[in-house]
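User: Can you help me understand a structure? I only have the sequence.
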Amino acid sequence: MRRFVAALLLLLLLTGCALAEEPARRALESTDLDDLEEFAGKVAPELDLQGILEEALRGELPNTEALIEALQDRLCAAAKDAVQSCGALIAPALLLAVMGCALPDHSGASAGAHFLILCTLLLGVVRLTFSEMEGVETCLVRVADFADAAAPPLAALMTAAGMTGSAALISPLAALIGGAAENLLLHYGLPLCRFALAMAVAGNLSDAIDLGRAYRLTRKTANWGAGLAVTLFTALTAIQGSVSAGMDGVAVRTAKYAVDSISPVIGSGISDAWDSYIGGIVIAKNAVGISGVALLLAAGLRPMLRTAALMVAMNLLAALMDVLGERRAARAAEQAAGVCQMLLTLCAAALTMGMILLAAAMAAGQNLLS
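Assistant: Let's start by predicting it. Here is the structure, written out as tokens:
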């Protein structure tokens, strides 16, 4: 019986040493990444997911200068798109200003022409804002899809390392992100943005109608709701992460102590191989997390930059109309910029929750290596 146990321990030792050669690479090869690769193909076909994983396994990150250049290119492209889109608003804005200077009394036919030009300008503002709403809606759907695609491989790697507590935490958090992105931000946040845009237009068609208070209330509701969702998600992740980290530490260290207690010599060798195996799993898990960060940025960076550029353009339009004396058009453009800020808040809230999920997954198991 003793010979059998010694042979079994020797076999485990040799297996552990083999895993210690490239444990992280073998862990990734045995993990199903099909859903994550399919998501990468939909969101960013130009992104080399396997290349990012390989660089992360070697401890390398993309060049900072290259990242800054890519960000500048995307920012310039977003600003260019916003300027081209707002080009259709220049003609009615200037015509409105000319009419205001030439016919300041706004009586009779001049009042009707002024109102029609104002409606044309506001219609262009609505069209531009609605186009950005579609991009933000796509971003929210993609964040929910990303949570569903990233949770299984992360949970599988954690389970392979014995971190069952953290593995059980990932799936509920991913489901919570999907529910928050679709049920809260998409089904409630975006309708509030549309409602605020409608009030921005309707409240500035005439001086007799003032919807400013209702607009501000709607805007605060959307912004505070998104901020509250992120705060609660962060608190829940921190609390459950602390509990699961304690459970993982107890489980893994108990297994390691049991192995060390078997034999003073063979047990120590198996313990070293086990540490190498755990380290490889942690590296593989972090590589998946880094690739997830890249995918989230690819999914949300473009709509956020486009919306931010449109918000700046609307504020500039509001300043121009204010200087030219068109108060109603200026207020409408300023409130449309506020709607763009609401859209940015919704998109940033969804991306933040996704980043928190990846950060919690990457932080899990770090105390097991000490």
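Now, to help you interpret it: Residues 266-323 form the longest helix (58 residues). DSSP finds ten helices and no strands in the chain. Let me know which part you'd like to focus on.
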